[in-house]
Amino acid sequence: MSLLSSVAAPDATPIDAWLARQTDLSAVEQFSRRHDAGGEHLQSRYYRDLVPARPPGPGQQYGFEVDLDACTGCKACVTACHNLNGLDGGETWRAVGILHGGTPAAPVRQTVSTACHHCLDPACLSGCPVAAYEKDPVTGIVAHLDDQCIGCQYCTFTCPYEVPQFNARLGIVRKCDMCRDRLVAGEAPACVQGCPNGAIAITVVDARQVLEDVQGDAFLPGAPSPAITVPTTVYRTSRAQPRNLLPADYFRIAPAPRHIPLVVMLVLSQLSVGTFACGVIASRCLPGVRAALQPAWSLAALAVALVAMAASVCHLGRPRYAFRAVIGLATSWVSREILAFGAFAGLGVMYAAWSLGRLPGTAIRDALGWTVAALGLIGVACSVMVYHATRRAWWSAAIIGAKFFATTALLGLAGLRVTIAIAGVELPRGAQTALVALVIATAAVKAASELAPLTHLRDRRYTELRRSAVLMTGELWRWLVARFVALAVGLAMLAVPHSAAATVVSCLVLIAGELLERTLFFAAVTADRMPGAFR
After folding, report:
1. What is the DSSP string of 417-441?
2. Residues 299 and 169 both lie in one domain
3. Which residue range is the domain that position 8 belongs to?
4. Disulfide engineering: 344 pairs with which of 190, 195, 375, 447, CB 3.0-4.6 Å?
5. Measured CA distances, 77 to 158, 459, 481 (Å)
6. What CATH number corresponds to the domain at position 226?
7. How confident is the model at residue 52 (pLDDT cuts 50, 70, 90)?
8. For the whole model, what pTM was predicted?
9. Nearest Cα to 197, choosing from 109, 75, 43?
């Protein structure tokens, strides 16, 4: 008698039934049929509900959705992202931060997972001078083009969420691309699939709804305003949050990177423009010394401009591709700055050659001189906008404009005095007195513009400008003191009469003071940050 028939027998035992079930291949046959038919992957249960069933339609795009109630801060998402993307040590595209608040009797602690928000209006894309970012028109994913990047790191300034990370080994910036290759294959991004609690998901967001949500100016406590770039990440919670909920490191401040090549570039470019512009004006107002003065100031300004341009290249991670920096002319102030200073230097060479060669056509030469000076001032204005575009209070157009143009005037006047002294030009006593008075007045205006932000120490709210003022009077106080000592010494040496050596030393000390001020310009900048922002 077979096992199957024994099961139906009245005297069948449980062992007979169990043995009969082992001969039933229905489960194997079902699996085989599903496999041959191309059924779901065995691991699909881990991501079936974590990616949309359909791609975005018109007016839609993909976005992250984070369930704050499910996030435990385990950082499995960080590990998954790091391993799948092969990131270097210390490089991270996703971070986990902490919000805390409430009262001693009812404290609140909330962990938050953050990454690139794939914004509707990504500042990294619009600010990049080499078009190294692209926003997919279908998915809305903002991706970085590694091969196009020159490592200027400007996107690390423009992104209010500090998402792009500079990789020193590769000399380029890299960032999250929502694992778009996995999405194309119907799989969830690494962070989504790696979260054990399903706290992260990919959703389809409606652009109009995102723009409406921005009007409330609410994103995450302590985070930058969503109105800057319109982020698409959605953070959800069913719990009431206390009004004093803030990032755990909200009150922690530290000096920012100093970016020495940019410090040198900014100061020397403004010295060059100032010297040239002051020389054009002086030659116009003092026709008696024009012939001796024109070659001296134009050559001095040109030499300094070339040094400034060389310093800017040293800031790049991949300097051999610096020629690409004008690709983003339509949207990037960096490209416009480079073009303006490039035209300034190029036409400056022509003007210097014309002045040295004593070529005919004085009216044309003078017009060329004014054009070169105007291009230089346009370049300084572009420098102002480069940093104003980052939307940081310390780098607002009013604060930077006062600093940059005052530096241009101060060092331009000092540079003019040096070229006059070296060229052996004898100015009338009244002109000498007026020149010294202009230097002192410009220095006073410059000092006032630098000290004005310190008034924010009295702010009740812990604003960006208050943080910068705290840094200036705290960790950076030695730099601040050294800056004003250099300014005072440089001005004091103006009192030494008819001394070319003292004039040169005075100019060098003033330049040193401006280098210190520009170092503070970078080191003291602060901004609101995401919880656990990339450091």
Report:
1. HHHHHHHT----HHHHHHHHHHHHH
2. no
3. 3-39
4. 375
5. 25, 38, 45
6. 3.30.70.20
7. confident
8. 0.87
9. 75
